[in-house]
Amino acid sequence: MAPSENNLSTSLLELFSVDKVKEKPLCVVRLRTSMWQDSRGLHTKKSLLFLRKQSQGFNLLEEDSSQIGADAVLPRIINLHECDDGVYKAVVCNESRDWESGYVDDYDYRLIPVNPDTSHLDKE
Q1: Alpha carbon distance 17, 4 (integer Å)
Q2: Which of 45, 52, 65, 75 could form a disulfide linkage to 34, CB 3.0–4.6 angstroms apart?
């Protein structure tokens, strides 16, 4: 094997190492509530903004909403209407598994408050 091929294979092994592939996903969002009035009535809106720099790995909310739509994902956040504006970690909860295969076939989400200045966002 040529020296350049050896370096390439070593760098590929480092890139796809088990530690990097099994990185625990962390989805951090900012919840904002807007309320306003116009000639047609009173309005309220809740927004979840992805905080990409504080998140790591797989963004479960973004992936699900791109596949099944926001109208199917938002009702699955069980405590969305109880949360005040702020920064939250989105986690999976209420997993149910298929009794034959053992694979997860249904789940919900929960928002857990985090301090945006804290570097240890993965603690509950």
Answers
A1: 20
A2: 45
